[in-house]
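Contributing new records

If you add data, match the layout below exactly. Sequence lines come first and carry their own label; structure lines follow with theirs. Keep one chain per record. Anything else will be rejected by the validation script.
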Amino acid sequence: MNEKDREGSSKRQVDLPMTDVLKTVSDEVRMLSDTAGNLQNLVSNLIVAGAFSGSQSIYELQSMDRLCQNLGAVADFLNGLAKSAPPEWKVDVTGPSQAVKLADVSDRLTGRITDSEAMTGDFEDFENWPMTG
């Protein structure tokens, strides 16, 4: 077996329907939008509480709002593409998934795990942290 054959045998092609891939990416971007929205709420509360002052804080909060809106718009666009893509279109996700350095994101994007499976156990260390204020 030559080098090229070994490389080919170690990579198993995974063809997924393009509709599923687009929907999954849409969901991933929506999750990022939601997370950015949560951060925006946190920063907003800190500004109201006086932790930050000045117009620069308000400007940055507006930037976070724009980020949330743009991420939501991209998620909506991808979801629309997923609905309009022909179901027979398939794409190999093996190569692109190897470019993703975060294993949980790669696994979600390729359908190896779901969002709920990926989130199990995340941030357990924070549950017992005392709140200071």
